[in-house]
């Protein structure tokens, strides 16, 4: 199956990270075998090693060879073409105000990655107004130049070997419910005919590579008209997340 993009609404929160750690909540579009993996990632997250702080920012990442020689976050290497002059909608821009943990009111950002039907470029589009931030040129990629074979929604963290794994989402587990956990909703994919359609529950697969006390995922299907297909995710991290 071929996809030409995806969209989601992502809740944003304040969490604290150290240099060397990162924690992101995003959409991935991918194609190709592991050593030739073409991947684009876009969403929101924290990356103190790049920005020197723990502020929530608009993030993007790409690779054309499974991170062997190509790829980077935001503008750390050539690739992404920024077209929107508004600094609020630039890769790396601080996103605010974020949501207080423990409230039903959520600060959210709508994020879409969409391949242009005519140029083949992959666009980063945000908010209800469909603001075009910029694009990753088709020429960066081999397998993604004709579309994606896999769409992923969720969170990702990293810490070096001498450091605990950082929090993800709100830093609370999804079992604590919507008021306390990170969430993503309005999950859509852009199909082979460039139609934007809601994901089907039967086609969603849960995946986690960490101890469930560190991070977890809770997906129970349709959540009503406000968030439609949605899930809760995240957790506090810790020292034994890969066990």
Distance between the first and last residues' Cα: 33 Å
Total of helices: 1
H/E element sequence: EEEHEEEEEEEEEEE
Strand content: 35-45%
List the helices and strands and how they pair.
Blueprint lengths: L4 E7 L10 E10 L6 E9 L1 H4 L5 E7 L8 E2 L7 E2 L25 E8 L6 E5 L4 E6 L13 E9 L23 E9 L5 E3 L17 E7 L6 E6 L9
Textual characterization of the structure:
The protein has 243 residues and is mainly beta. It is built from one helix and 14 strands; from the N terminus they run E-E-E-H-E-E-E-E-E-E-E-E-E-E-E. Strands 1, 6, 7, 8, 9, 11, 12, 13 and 14 form a nine-stranded antiparallel beta sheet that branches. Strands 5-4-3-2-10 form a five-stranded antiparallel beta sheet, with no helix packed on it. The longest helix is centred in the N-terminal third of the chain and has 4 residues, at 48-51. The chain is globular, with a radius of gyration of 17 Å.
């Amino acid at each position: 199956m071929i996809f030409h993009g995806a969209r989601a609404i992502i809740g944003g929160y304040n969490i604290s990270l150290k240099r060397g750690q990162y924690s992101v909540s995003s959409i991935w579009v991918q194609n190709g075998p592991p050593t030739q993996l073409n991947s684009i990632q876009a969403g929101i997250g924290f990356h103190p090693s790049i920005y020197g702080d723990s502020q929530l920012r608009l993030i993007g990442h790409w690779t054309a060879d499974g991170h062997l020689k190509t790829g980077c976050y935001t503008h750390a290497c050539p690739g992404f073409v920024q077209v929107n002059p508004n600094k609020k909608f630039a890769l790396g821009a601080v996103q605010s105000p974020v949501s207080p943990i423990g409230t039903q009111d959520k600060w959210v950002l709508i994020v879409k990655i969409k391949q242009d039907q005519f140029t083949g470029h992959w666009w980063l589009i945000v908010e209800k107004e469909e603001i075009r931030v910029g694009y990753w040129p088709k020429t960066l990629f081999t397998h993604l130049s004709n579309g994606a074979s896999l769409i992923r929604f969720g969170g990702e963290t990293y810490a070096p070997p001498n450091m605990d794994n950082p929090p993800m989402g709100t830093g609370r587990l999804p079992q604590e419910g919507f008021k306390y956990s990170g969430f993503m909703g309005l999950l859509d994919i852009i199909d082979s005919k460039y139609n934007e359609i809601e994901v089907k529950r039967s086609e969603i697969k849960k995946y986690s590579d960490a101890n469930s006390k560190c991070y977890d995922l809770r997906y129970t299907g349709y959540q009503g008209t406000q968030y439609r297909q949605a899930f809760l995710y995240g957790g506090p991290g810790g020292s034994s997340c890969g066990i």
